Amino acid sequence: MLPSALPADPAALDDLLSKLATPQRVYQLLSSRLTVRQVLWCLAQLLAEGQLRVVPGGSPQRFVREGPDETPLPGCGLHLVGDDSLRLNPHFREILTDLISDKQSQYSQSVETYETLIRRYKIMQSLGDLNHEALLLLGDDALFSLFLAVHGYRRRIVVADIDPQLLATIARVAAQQGFNNIEVVQYDVFQPLPQSLVGQFDCFAVNGFKDLGGLLMFVCRALQALKAPPAMRSGYLNFGSHDVLSVEQVRQEVEMHQALLRFGLYLDYCVPCPETHVCSAFEEAFSASAQRLAEVPPVLRVQACERELQALYQAFSHLSWVQMRNFPDIQLSPLKMGRCRVVERNDREISRFLRLGQLYAGSTANAQ
């Protein structure tokens, strides 16, 4: 029994055990359909029962199941984030290390894992969306523009983002690396699209939203930026929530699909595309918590688990996903990436939605 009001998916538990057949880091174990709390509890229980051990040497630590499996497990060790067959491009590693230290701003920018970036790249490549003349990145806190350039993309990329610090960093690195195909434009989606961006792009990718309304504002602006005729042009979006799947989340996803259809496009491809970056310091602290819990008597372990989680929260409260309202009852790999295809752009419906969004933004600003 896991110490949580949230039920654990039995298949997710099987999957965790399947992963542990080989040495796993904490970020790989958190990349699952279990919550942060549930993963910590499972590790502590397995360690206490002698079914799990820490692999000697190496940092961050890795865990592996102890002894042969007597019962075959139905899970397949699914990794929604980590893909160890992919190796970080040394050139991009240098750039990314520099950028992560620079990417501090009031907009709570996220840091995507390298695996997430390469997954998006491979999907766009396989679907033919890296063969276009011009790509709009409406929000680029993932630094996908620089990833594309490092990996040989030489067609026009325009990054439109509200954050001047982020844009300055992208422009600086692009200049240093000789990437002359990246342009940056400071832009707020609640304002009209600059005329220089209207009807200029073959494909778009949106990022930076925190709710359904924000996502749809980004999509509407991106649709206005597509070249004429827009029919059959493509766009990419991320969506989902870190909260455990609920009826409300399913309802929101249905609303998203309905809104996209009203705008004149549909979602024709969808894959898991998590965004959460688990730093090595958190991995080490999480590993230490699990090992301390394993030493606590079973009758006291639930209370001790709460204390360990509170300590993790206090130590890592600067991380955006630790700040989430439901931490530690959140999943770190629930987001999805989808490709949209335009059938027939409904400019009237798009304009109506944008007007409503601008009115809402104005009323919110006045209230503050």
Topology, element by element:
Elements: H1 10-19, E1 24-25, H2 26-30, H3 36-48, E2 52-54, E3 62-65, H4 90-102, H5 114-126, E4 134-138, H6 144-150, E5 156-161, H7 164-177, E6 182-186, E7 203-206, H8 212-224, E8 234-239, H9 247-263, E9 265-272, H10 280-294, H11 298-315, E10 336-342, H12 347-367
Parallel strand pairs: 4-5, 4-7, 5-6, 7-8
Antiparallel strand pairs: 1-3, 2-3, 8-10, 9-10
Question: Could you please describe the fold and organization of this structure?
Answer:
- With 368 residues, this protein is an alpha/beta fold.
- The chain folds into two domains: 11-78 and 283-318, Arc Repressor Mutant, subunit A (Orthogonal Bundle); 86-275 and 335-366, Rossmann fold (3-Layer(aba) Sandwich).
- 43% of the residues lie in helices and 14% in strands.
- The chain has twelve helices and ten strands.
- It has helices at residues 10-19, 26-30, 36-48, 90-102, 114-126, 144-150, 164-177, 212-224, 247-263, 280-294, 298-315, 347-367; strands spanning 24-25, 52-54, 62-65, 134-138, 156-161, 182-186, 203-206, 234-239, 265-272, 336-342.
- The strands form two sheets. A seven-stranded mixed sheet has the order 6-5-4-7-8-10-9, with helices on both faces. A three-stranded antiparallel sheet has the order 1-3-2.
- Helix 3 (36-48) crosses helix 10 (280-294), helix 8 packs across helix 12 (347-367) and helix 10 packs antiparallel against helix 11.
- The model is unreliable at 70-86 and 104-111 (pLDDT under 50).
